[in-house]
Amino acid sequence: GPCTECSCSSGKAPSKDPSHTKKKEDGDGLSVPKIFFGTRTHKQIAQITRELKRTTYSSVPMTILSSRDYTCIHPVVSNSGSNRNEMCVELLEGKNGKSCAYYHGVHKLSEHHGLQAARGLHQAWDIEDLVSLGRKLRACAYFAARELMVGADIVFCPYNYLLDPQIRESMDINLKGQVVILDEGHNIEDCARESVSFGVTESQLRAAREELDFMVSNNIRQRDHGPLRAVCCSLI
Fold first, then answer.
1. What positions does the domain Helicase ATP-binding occupy (predicted)?
2. Residues 6+ away with beta carbon under 8 Å from 175
3. Taking a C-beta distance cutoff of 8 angstroms, is the pair 80, 87 a contact?
4. Domain containing residue 121: CATH number
5. How far, in Å, CA of 159 to CA of 168, rounded?
6. Are 72 and 81 in contact (CB under 8 A)?
7. Is the domain of 112 the same as that of 83?
8. Higher pLDDT, 171 or 24
9. Got the DSSP string for 50-98?
10. Does residue 140 sit in the same domain as residue 209?
11. 129, 153, 181, 214: which sits with the fewest CB atoms below 10 Å from its CB?
12. What digits encode the pLDDT tens for the residues 91-137?
């Protein structure tokens, strides 16, 4: 039946009952933890959000964290292949005198969803819904999803967003005191290995060795570059 302890379906303010909230460590206030729901693939996120729509909690504020591969709508960057991240950063930094108009329209998308939630019209959505709306409003879905995380009660994302400390830092994800749900947890080991693994080709190793040879021969930080060169040579 309808939830009586929170604002998800009744439209009322959340209950202040201490038994349903979590005290902050400093004791100065009360905070409700977010739910971080990690899955193995983006396809699984689509399945979960579809099921969420069928529940009483379909109106709970949510967001989906995803890579630029799935959310970028810039006509040049989105068709650039494997260097979307680099091109996006260059546009944000204003290199070559160019910028991203879609990034500057992020507020249109985040406020659009916020307005729906305020009117009680907010429904669970998939990343494709956000991207489609982003194209309509000419607003970046990638950064809008990150902004929506601030007010979200549920955050859906792939495993590595929760397991990889570098991604957590870049996405401003703080899991302390939050609820973490990992779907199909038996896949966690493989994901953890992938997060700390790196693939390199022989040509890349040879190029690195040549650069390190130059550093060592020109007496540039030999104590650092010498051992690195030895590693490259042994791998080759």
1. 1-232
2. 36, 162, 168
3. yes
4. 3.40.50.300
5. 11
6. no
7. yes
8. 171
9. HHHTTSGGGGS-EEE---HHHH---TTGGGS-S-HHHHHHHHHTTGGG-
10. no
11. 214
12. 888 877 788 889 988 888 877 765 555 544 467 888 888 899 899 98
Query: pLDDT value at position 214?
Result: 94
Task: Count structural domains, the chain.
Answer: 2
On the CB side of 226, how many CA atoms lie within 13 Å of its CA? Answer: 7
Tell whether 181 and 143 lie within a shared domain: yes
Please give the pLDDT value at position 142. Answer: 93
Phi–psi pair at 136, nearest 5 degrees: -65, -40
Q: Can you point out the beta strands (E) in the chain? A: 22-23, 30-31, 35-39, 62-64, 154-158, 179-182
Sheet with 179-182: list strands edge to edge. Answer: 62-64, 154-158, 35-39, 179-182
Over the stretch 136-147, which tens digit does the pLDDT of each residue have? 989 999 999 999
Residues in the chain: 236
